[in-house]
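User: For a benchmark we're assembling, each entry needs the component sequences followed by a predicted structure for the full assembly. Here are entry 17's components. Please fill in the structure.
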Amino acid sequence: MNILGYADKFSIKTNEELKIKVSCKNIKTYKANLIKIIQGDTNKKGPGYKEKKINIDLGGPFKARHQKFPIGSYGYVKNKKVFTKMKNIFICINIFSTLLSQKKEQIIFSKYDNVTKTGIQLLIDNNDKINFIVNKSKIKIKEKFRTKKWYLIEAGYDYNKGIFFISSKRYDDNKKISSIAKNKKFIKKNLNFNNNQDLYIAAKNSIDKINGFYNGKLDNLKFFNDNNISFNNKNKKILIQFDFSKNISSNKIIDKSPNKLHGILVNNPSRGVIGFNWKENSRSWKHNPDEYTSIHFHEDDLTDCKWQTDFKFKIPKNIVSGIYAVKLFNKKNEFYIPFCIKPKISSRNKILFLMPTSSYLAYANNRIALDVPETETVCARLIEINDQDIFLQENPEVGLSFYDVHNDGSPVFYSSKRRPIINFQPKVRGVLGGLGSNVWQFNADTHILGWLDNFNYKFDVISDSDLHTQGDKILKNYNVVITGSHPEYYSLKMIKNIEKFKNNGGRLMYLGGNGFYWRISFDKNSTDIIECRKSEAGIRAVETHPGENYSSLTGEYTGLWRRNDYPPNKLVGVGMVSQGFDVSSPYFRTKQSYNKKVRFIFEGIKENKIGDFGLSGGGAAGLEIDSYNKEFGSPENTIVLASSKKHTDVYLMTPEDLLDPVPGISGTEAENIKSDMVFFKTKNNGAVFSVGSIAWGGSMAWNKYENNISMITKNVLNRFLDKKGFS
Amino acid sequence: MSKYQIIENDYDLALEFKKNLFENNFYHSPSLQRILNLFRSNSDENKYVLFKPSNKKIWYFAKLPGKRGKKIKINYKISFDNILEAEWYVFKKRWKKHTGKNLKI
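Assistant: Structure for entry 17:
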């Protein structure tokens, strides 16, 4: 994989400009084409890979260059004249370190010039000891730092007397001092440590390279300068007083001192996290900001590669809405950068496909095959590593997904599109896609796209960010809205816009499983970054801290939609019940499915057993499955059309359903482990058809789209396109 | 992580696994499932995986290094032209690891 890239947009209008950012290794030039993605699964048992080159010259061949992944979060404050007031210096800060014993230096703050060796730094050294540095002089605490303990570190330099000191107070879990250590020595008087460097927090600038990233929380960083500098002077003159509880939803850090030395955060360290002053009864930074004065920095945060643009082009005026990609290639390498072209206002198409880009972001560059030992157990077979996995393993700097944990074990809260996404490409195989094609998210969704193309349906496409920002305006132009195979991550606005559509006569086809599961929030200024905190319950890599379940971007309570009073059952009639990634199962029709009200769905279907085939596990019901449940809000008028019966024992009940764990929770025993295919009418002649299975699309594409799952989908779509009401 | 320990009578379950494997049957007896959970949930370094290069119908035996950034250890001397043979190879290897005895099937 010697070519990587990303675009500045996931969705774009015609005549708008798309900027492409590329990084190459070991190659001199590459070419680029604009292609339409029609069917991305390369499985020989599938309908066949299909892309179409669009006749537009993107320029090139392009000169290849390398661009770096600037991984690691930090803050900085631009150098200002007021810093020259520092002669005597006293600093204090609360530190909660989360990753030690790495034999790496971790910087707490640095205003240091590596060339002239002037300035000040506070750091945890290779041996986990805290050091304060003024120019070439260093003082440290002999005791090693401990992880996940709060410390108050105070340090200073007396310009007139040459006294150099540091102290460390460690607190126990009740915030009582459990250990005190001090060190003091005399060094040269009248040291001038001023320089032109910016002040860095949680990293340092080593000759134009940011490194020395810190893992953990920092809280209440203060700088004082005064003629009488010492531990005991209570009337110190403040130079900087950061209050990280201010502007939590932004990348700004606020200095409360009169100097207003505000700073900027890079790569979204976690905000809205509990601080030194947190008390057990506080849950939200919005309600108790004084207890959320920390920022949690990680060496592996990455939300913006900030790559330079290599080329740009205007989307042609005459191009139709759909899913396209810029294909970067040379003889041996290729890399696809998919995006959707939004419909024109004049579009007459009546079908809209929702490209679930938030869910693509949630899974972006996930390391499920590499880092999660249980993956083989839930896939029930050996994990097949491919070239993409090799790349991800060797290049963790491409950033993490919501399925990974940070190097310090803490949850990943943010995912961004401003980076290459290795698994958001056609042709790519996944790990959770079941026996067969083993495709997931974007490439699995191309089974649905290929099906629409095969039957010559004219359709438009928008992304999740469009659904979030303009969904109410866009959706009303369509008779039918179709989801992807696994639209799992939804914001409140996205849910509301779908709800509004279906209650205003719109028809929704939910052709996937485990949809509308996690609540996400978008950055207010851009939909490039999403946040998800997997609170309380649900299937997740790691628990959040009880005080850290509110989104930093919006202040919303996050977690499962089910725990936010909006279970997916309310929206689409079914909700997540189980997952297993080996084989899928057929559905069996219910008695209700023979009711004349829903006869249109099974027109031409003679079999009672349907979907006993497919590219995703060999059945239509599988991977992640949903079922009808009135208790969670499945509408009263829901008709369960068909259900799967038996699943293997790697399918287990979800943690949120296991209120009282008892034996018999797996696929061959638990009666609620089944996928339900449902239909229900909504207001104003609207309707919903839900299949409750990720594997459905893999069956639509089986036998070159000629099969009973494909036929059911076609029956529903054709009837949904007809505005006539339902009996 | 499973804590199950294999006992003498479990030999029959190895026979069941081989039969199920080559019949492509993923529905196992609870006793066999317990052994598979033990074998597959191993979280040690050097977890066994297969490497399949793009566009080639060959699988190489490989081990995950257990640390981000480190290379996956691919053993190009141990390869399989179908995935079932690879599964059976790994099953026997793990049987030996957990029992100290070769599985003579």
